[in-house]
Design goal:
Radius of gyration: 15 Å
CATH topology: Immunoglobulin-like
Strand order of the largest sheet: 3-2-5-6-8
CATH superfamily: C2 domain
CATH class: Mainly Beta
Oligomer: single chain
Number of domains: 1
């Protein structure tokens, strides 16, 4: 089954080491709440393929149409090739609704530099993140 939100092809061998992920801010989100402002948060999943992802954490809730988190995750990974960012709207009465998601191939994070990405969410919105990776010492 094809995953349109995956821009890069699966490369096979995953990364092992420490991943530093800063979820910075989102913009251009679709309006989900009829009354008031949304309560967006971002959840992360990581895994060896786009169809085999496990939860890796979530941010606190931010408020408004252009939420700002500046929330950093430090995650030990083993054989991981993909990270999924999913923005959801926290709802007290019903199930949390999804603003959008993006799956990023971790092979785009090369070296030990921090890379900033402006990710296009499916179906709508943008999420800016910064990702750094430190490989396991051989």
């Amino acid at each position: 089954m094809a995953h349109p939100e995956v821009v890069e092809d699966y490369l096979g061998t995953g990364l092992s080491g420490v991943l530093r992920v800063e979820v910075m801010f989102a913009e251009d989100l679709k309006r989900l709440d009829v009354v008031g402002h949304g309560r967006p948060y971002c959840s992360l999943k990581i895994g060896p393929s786009p169809t085999n992802l496990v939860p890796a954490g979530r941010t606190k809730v931010a408020h408004g149409a252009t939420p700002k988190w500046d929330y950093t995750f430090i995650i030990d990974i083993k054989n991981a090739s993909f990270i999924q960012f999913k923005l959801k709207d926290e709802d007290y009465i019903s199930k949390d609704e999804t603003y959008g998601k993006h799956i990023l191939n971790l092979h785009r994070v090369t070296g030990e530099n921090t890379h900033t990405f402006c990710l296009t969410l499916t179906p709508k919105g943008k999420l800016t993140v910064a990702i750094g990776f430190s490989p396991v010492a051989s």
